Amino acid sequence: MPKGEVHPQALNLLRSLHYPTDGLRSKSWEEFSGPEAPKLDFVFTVCDNAAAEVCPIWPGQPMTAHWGVPDPAAAQGSPAEIGAAFADTYRMLNSRISLFMNLPLASLDRLSLQRRLDDIGHRRDTSQKA
């Protein structure tokens, strides 16, 4: 469930990596399911607990995959430990997005592409701390 705001630590991390953060907000999936919603080609769920939840039927039947990562907003400890949780989550997602961006989309049939998307979500991120 979206909280309506972006976690301050996520904003700090994004700013430190020189990403623009103006206007960022959390969004409900309902924003992407109506007739006025943008067309989606791919949908990736990332919450560790989302794999057990019922996901909506997306308009246009985009490819979907679950790329679960630990929720850094649930991290506890010192500010440095919480910052490290956000950085680890960023590294995991950045690695998976890089793999996705390098897939030969034009040469993969739908079934092969789905298998590759699922594999990306199940891979152990080597940049992740042990």
Would you kindly provide a written description of the structure presented here, covering whatever features stand out?
- The chain has helices at 8-16, 79-101, 110-122, and strands at 42-47, 63-69.
- The relative contact order is 0.14.
- The two termini are 29 Å apart.
- It is of the alpha+beta class and 130 residues long.
- The protein has a domain at 38-122.
- It has a two-stranded parallel ribbon.
Q: What's the structural blueprint in terms of helices and strands?
A:
Elements: H1 8-16, E1 42-47, E2 63-69, H2 79-101, H3 110-122
Parallel strand pairs: 1-2
What can be said about this structure in brief?
This protein is α+β, with helices and mostly antiparallel strands.
Rg estimate, integer Å:
16 Å
Q: Give me the strand/helix succession.
A: HEEHH
Q: What's the count of strands?
A: 2
**Proportion of helical residues:** 25-40%
Through-space gap between termini: 29 Å
The shape, in one word, is: globular
The assigned structural class equals alpha+beta
Q: Strand percentage, roughly?
A: 5-15%
Reported for the largest beta sheet, the result is: 2 strands, parallel
Low-confidence stretches: none
Kindly report the average pLDDT value.
Answer: 88
Q: Numbering strands along the chain, what is their spatial order in the largest sheet?
A: 1-2
Number of helices: 3
From the structure above, extract its key features:
130 residues, alpha+beta, 3 helices, 10% strand, globular
